[in-house]
Amino acid sequence: MSSLQDWPEPIIRVQSLSESGLPMVPDRYVKPLSDRPNIHQPESGDDVNIPLIDLTGLSDDENELSPTTMARISSACREWGFFQVVNHGVSPGLMDRARETWRSFFHLPMESKQAYANSPKTYEGYGSRLGIEKGAILDWSDYYFLHFLPLTLKDYNKWPASPVSCREVIDEYGKELVKLGGRIMKVLSTNLGLKQDQLQNAFGGDNLGACLRVNFYPKCPQPDLTLGLSSHSDPGGLTILLPDHQVPGLQVRKDGRWITVKPASHAFIVNIGDQVQVLSNANYKSVEHRVIVNSGMERVSLAFFYNPKSDIPIKPVEELVSEDKPALYPPMTFDEYRLFIRLNGPKGKSQVESLKSPRCQ
Question: Model's pTM, two decimal places?
């Protein structure tokens, strides 16, 4: 882990670049032609979007979702890896407070934010890059990363003290998202034909991991040359994203095309991470996604990661392994798994695909 002690180059805050009024994107942020977004001619029509699912009837204690709704969630997990949820049990007021509190943080003076500057050892705090490859092409974004669970990693001193009530809002939001993640995990488990708590138990039961990455995408002078976040699948279990309510930016890869997600009002965007793909023996798919930026408006989004306990070996659930469909992945802990992205940054689906057992490739 000694290679993760510090960044290979001085960190430049993308927000500072944006606010300097520079007319062109610096070369360090210019993506190869094959990775650049098609800003002016969207690849998907206005009628294409990820599934939108109403969770009315799903509570901590019982699941009263209709068979039709359960089937739609199952289909979304297998075909899209993404879906939006409304009537999810988290108050719209809390969602708005969380997003706008973080927006206020990113508009604090730079010296206030720099007090929380992060390192690649844990990524906790205020950051501007993923991966430690010297000379790597960077993404057009800054972020803040913090741990919520396990409690041994939860450190309020690493959470922003400003703006006022920031820590209280983060704490309340995190508690609600952990509960929502647990409810969704029960549905995913049931839809796989497993006991409703089986996926959760494979995560470590109540001893799971949870963390928050708040993304800040400043205005960009040449949004057709760069990305706010490069293509990747999420390494963890389940991601619950609170998008910016004014500006779209998330794109999901579907059938070789990039679909720009159109967020519904006060919806969360849920996506399958690599760990659930492994546990489900690829019945559920983690899917490549990326973020585009624009020249007119900044964006703020909150990605809440609901993850396995970091030292438990994650492997396909026995009930989903058969002679016809052998285990596709060898056991690996989440600690071992996420080291890849911390060293290399986002790399499409290359990590989870490289883990497949040789006989299954």
Answer: 0.94
